[in-house]
Amino acid sequence: MATEKPSLEDLLLQMIPPQQVMVQTLYDLLLEKGCAVDIKPSTSKFILSFSLGKPRKVVANIVFRKNGPAARIYGEHTTEYAAFLNMLPERMAHSIEKAPVCKKLINPGDCTPNCKGGYDFDLQGTRVQRCKYNAFLFEVDGTTLPFIMEFLKKETEQRQQAMTNQG
Q1: What is the mean pLDDT of each run of 10 residues along the chain (167 residues)?
Q2: I need a labelling partner for 81 at 20 to 30 A (CA). Which of 118, 121, 141, 152 fits?
Q3: What is the residue-wise DSSP string for 69-133?
């Protein structure tokens, strides 16, 4: 018998109240920005996946971990709002710095052929080339939430503008 997908409420009940509020806030923001949401199974729990456009491209995932939720942002348009990255708190900047280097950008033969490559940008005066799957993976808490929300607003707005410009 197939396992039934949990609802958002089921996922929220697995968290402490402050985390519930933060995840609900991100969920509401991404729906407001026109994202579709899908709850996907993962190796440990479930992932909330938010996508935008046609064909749908993932903007962000909220992953549920033992120590709490984390937001993985796919910042395809970071060059349009690069100055914002330099305003991130030290903890978030450190998370970007310690993310794995993008093999595709360094030596394309070292990565899988279907990988489109990661991100190449300046962060606080240093050039970084990071894997798209871990470059912008942040714990969701009271300190990071406002910056994650701003990051998501900027990314969704840039994607919507790009879709408008394409036709």
Answers
A1: 74 90 97 94 84 92 90 94 94 96 90 88 92 95 97 96 84
A2: 141
A3: EEEEE--TTGGGGHHHHTTS-HHHHHHHHHSPB-HHHH-GGGS-TT----EEEEETTEEEEE-TT
Helix, strand, coil share of the chain (percent; to 5): 40, 25, 35
97, two tokens: 């710095």
The token duo for 138 is 């942040």
Sequence-ordered list of residues with C-beta below 8 angstroms from that of 61, at least 6 positions apart, any chain: 47, 48, 49, 50, 71, 72
Determine the Cα–Cα distance for residues 52 and 67; give it in Å rounded to an integer. 28
| DSSP 8-state code for residue 167 | -
Supply the pLDDT for residue 35. Answer: 96
Strand (E) or helix (H) holding 14: none
**Residue with token string 């407001």:** 32
Pair 93, 138: CB distance under 8 Å: no
